[in-house]
UniProtKB/TrEMBL annotation:
Residue numbers annotated as active site: C335
Naturally occurring in which organism (per UniProt): Chitinophaga pinensis
Enzyme class: lyase
Positions annotated to bind pyridoxal 5'-phosphate: G225, Y363
GO process terms (BP): lysine biosynthetic process via diaminopimelate
Matching InterPro entries: Ala_racemase/Decarboxylase_C, DAP_deCOOHase_LysA, De-COase2_N, De-COase2_pyr-phos_BS, Orn/DAP/Arg_de-COase, PLP-binding_barrel
SUPFAM superfamilies, sorted: Alanine racemase C-terminal domain-like (SSF50621), PLP-binding barrel (SSF51419)
Similarity comment text for this entry: Belongs to the Orn/Lys/Arg decarboxylase class-II family. LysA subfamily.
Gene3D superfamilies with a match to the protein in the record: Alanine racemase, Lyase, Ornithine Decarboxylase, Chain A, domain 1
Protein name as it appears in the record: Diaminopimelate decarboxylase
Gene Ontology molecular function: diaminopimelate decarboxylase activity; pyridoxal phosphate binding
């Protein structure tokens, strides 16, 4: 969890819930800045660049704010590229790292002038045959490292769909040579929520072994996966230790390479997760023979991580912060089993109380849906002490907007 001093106070969250209604996502801009500055400090001894992995949260106001900090943008779809350009990112400050897209989407990114990262042999060969050395590219490699807090977010293992296997290096070299492709970057991303610094070090050593086969590299991109704490006592990536060890290793390798090299990172959750708060209202207290449920005015249509990833979010009753603690199971209003948390200690909850989910900035709203024809929540940004609505709550008209009545 964030330090208490980093958190928006409970009484302030209640005020915003009353002002903007619930459910509501609230983001604290200055917390994003704190996280970005942590990365800059940790890697200050090497030539490092950071690209926000915007699949975590793409609200245009968040993108504009992150751009204002001097951070780059990591995108995984052509739509995210367009959002990044609209938010003011320069094309050379955007990297496009899709997977399982066709050549047309890659060409569309090329026409926009962004950095292109290719992750399969087929597209690599097609792009090389069509464009040769006229447009530089990055190649995403699969280092065959199992890493990440959940199999669903591990992306560098042998069964992963991501990247080109390091054991296909000779095939890559033949394509590069025959098509005259100019490869200026190598990329890997092993997974999210990596606790062990040695995983990154093992990965970077593998990348160094591959890099010697490419004479025109300008950067090596190590993805991200930096873990943040979701509850007291949670392990998290030791950014400062990683910064020291990785910078030493990278600087030693860079000194042996024939040209200057940068190291790139793509933090997503690390930047925005702890900035986010999801506030809901207790609709009903329902007691059964086994459990006391708090049924809230949301469900996995708004926050799917607990159901999809078994993710933990700290939940608190901000309407009654000093009440007697009781044991509750917090559930949603969706016509499916949508349990946010089993057997949680909460200050006594009454119907109408506001509950807050902490660490809700990453993959919260971004993975939301209109399941059960429920409306998507509003989003609010707190910046310089001022709260502003940055997305209106859905209306029934939004559900019908793209439907065609016959």
């Amino acid at each position: 969890m964030s330090k208490q001093s980093d958190l928006l106070p409970a009484e302030y969250l209640v005020k915003l819930a009353e002002e903007f209604g619930t459910p509501v996502y609230i983001y604290h801009a200055e917390k994003i800045k704190i996280q970005y500055e942590k990365l800059q400090t940790a890697f200050q001894k090497t030539d490092a660049r950071f690209f926000y992995a915007c699949k975590a949260l793409t609200n245009i106001n968040i993108l504009k704010y992150i751009n204002s900090l001097g951070c780059g943008l990591d995108t995984v779809s052509i739509q995210e590229v367009h959002l990044g350009l609209k938010a003011g990112f320069a094309p050379n400050n955007i990297i496009f790292t899709p997977n399982c897209v066709d050549l047309e989407e890659i060409i569309a990114a090329k026409e926009l002038g962004v950095n292109i990262n290719i992750d399969n042999i087929s597209i690599l060969e097609q792009f090389g045959n069509r464009f040769g050395d006229s447009y530089p590219i990055c190649i995403r490699l699969n280092p065959h490292i199992m890493a990440g807090g959940n199999y669903k977010i591990s992306t560098g293992h042998v069964d992963s769909k991501f990247g080109i296997s390091i054991h296909q290096l000779r095939h890559i070299e033949r394509i590069v040579k025959s098509t005259k492709l100019k490869v200026t970057g190598l990329h890997m991303h092993t997974g999210s929520e990596i606790k062990d610094v040695d995983v990154f070090l093992r990965g970077v050593e593998i990348m160094f072994e591959q890099a010697v086969h490419f004479p025109d590299l300008e950067f090596i991109d190590l993805g991200s996966g930096f873990k943040v704490a979701y509850q007291a006592g949670d392990p998290e990536t030791d950014i400062n230790l990683l910064g020291r060890k990785l910078s030493d290793a990278f600087n030693k390798f860079a000194a042996t390479y024939k040209r200057p090299l940068q190291v790139w990172f793509e933090p997503g959750k690390f930047l925005v997760s702890q900035s986010g708060y999801f506030v809901v209202k207790a609709n009903v207290i329902k007691q059964t023979t086994a459990t006391v449920f708090v049924g809230v005015n949301s469900g996995f249509n708004h926050l799917i991580r607990p159901m999809f990833y078994d993710a933990f979010h700290l939940i608190k009753n901000i309407s009654n912060p000093k009440g007697t603690e009781r044991i509750y199971t917090i559930v949603g209003n969706i016509c499916e089993t949508d349990t946010f948390g089993w057997d949680r200690k909460l200050n006594e909850v009454k119907e109408g109380d506001f509950l807050v989910f902490y660490n809700a900035g990453a993959y919260g709203f971004e993975m939301s849906s209109n399941f059960n024809s429920r409306l998507k929540p509003a989003e609010v940004l707190v910046k310089d002490g001022k709260a502003q609505l940055i997305r209106k709550r859905d209306t029934l008209e939004d559900l019908l907007r793209n439907q065609i009545e016959l």
